[in-house]
Design brief:
The protein is of the alpha/beta class. The chain is built from 14 helices and eleven strands.
Length: 334
């Protein structure tokens, strides 16, 4: 046990203590009732459309179950980063979380395909696959790692944004230090396109931009706004290199503890929240784009063809993996 705690971050230990203390003082009465409460932690602010989707799931589940099965949300990184909440879920300290599919590629290899540049042609093509056989396979792929997928949320397209100069072609990325998510696929994607990939936690990025540790980053419009990165970066380049969805996951320990009726309630609430979250996403992007224009952010719409061609080796490398090749081929055929 001593060695186990040595391996854990101080913040994670505090998170576990917090969760345990909250359970002790707030759920003592639940043992005498039929109520079950699922702790749901994520790293986004409450203004974010993904958080609003989670709230929609919370409200729908409460209604369907008559309050017997509830979700308590811990937003804004209260219980740690994406990787930390995944690990808290694995050890059973929380029941659910929402993370980028790229973060899951460190745990379930099948999710690597979601970070292949230009694999998905557009949003319709993305959700045609995520809401079909491919999506079912991905959601199930984390089970052996104690991570059961529940549903996918729209996270739009990820594009580069920079501080000091626009990017009109992959050549303009040469020499730029760009923050990427902390997974090998994201690093490979940025390096292949010509940038110098710099993985770091999202919460550290604003300061890193201010202090010139990095020259820019890549993300979707709502995250560019909610993080206030537009205060530092004045160029947003719509190269739209990836369409990485967000994934709602539940720990297998908690899933297995639910009876069949409770599982149906949760799945139905999740499905209903997906449709609402897509609408929240569209509305938020429209509002954010208007605000960014007023703030003087310069939008760059480059020819995507050179980006597609230069990033092709990422897909070619993954096609050599016998586990991933059938999934990629199925997506390309749809």
């Amino acid at each position: 046990m001593k060695h186990f705690f040595k391996l854990m971050s101080f913040r994670k230990i505090l998170s576990i203590i917090f969760v345990g203390t909250w359970l002790l003082f707030n759920l003592s009465c639940a043992s005498n009732s039929d109520e079950k409460i699922l702790f749901f932690a994520h790293s986004l602010p409450t203004s974010h459309p993904v958080h609003k989707g989670i709230v929609a799931m919370q409200e729908s589940l409460n209604e369907k179950s008559g309050g017997k099965l509830q979700i308590k949300i811990f937003p804004d990184g209260q219980l740690g980063s994406e990787r930390e909440t995944i690990e808290l879920l694995q050890i059973g300290s929380i029941a659910m979380t929402k993370v980028s599919a790229s973060a899951l590629s460190n745990f379930a290899p099948e999710y690597k395909i979601t970070v292949i540049p230009y694999l998905f042609r557009d949003s319709d093509h993305l959700f045609k696959n995520l809401e079909g056989e491919v999506g079912e396979q991905l959601l199930a792929s984390g089970t052996e790692y104690l991570l059961r997928g529940v549903c996918f949320y729209d996270a739009g397209a990820r594009s580069f944004y920079t501080k000091d100069a626009p990017v009109n072609s992959p050549d303009d990325l040469d020499g730029l230090k760009l923050r990427v998510q902390n997974d090998q696929m994201s690093v490979d994607m940025a390096n292949t396109l010509g940038a110098s990939a710099t993985p770091m936690a999202f919460g550290e990025l604003y300061t890193a931009l201010q202090q010139n540790v990095v020259d820019g980053a890549e993300n979707n419009i709502p995250s560019f706004v909610s993080s206030n990165h537009f205060e530092v970066c004045k160029y947003y380049i719509f190269d739209e290199h990836t369409m990485v969805p967000d994934v709602v996951i539940i720990g297998t320990k908690f899933w297995d503890s639910l009876n069949e009726e409770e599982k149906v309630w949760l799945e139905e609430a999740a499905d209903e929240s997906v449709a609402k979250q897509k609408q929240y996403w569209k509305e938020t992007v429209d509002e954010n784009m208007k605000m960014l224009k007023e703030k003087g952010i310069e939008f760059i719409y480059p020819d995507k063809t050179p980006f597609v061609e230069k990033s092709r080796p990422v897909m070619e490398r993954l096609l050599e993996d016998p586990q991933l090749r059938p999934i990629i081929e199925k997506i390309n055929a749809n």
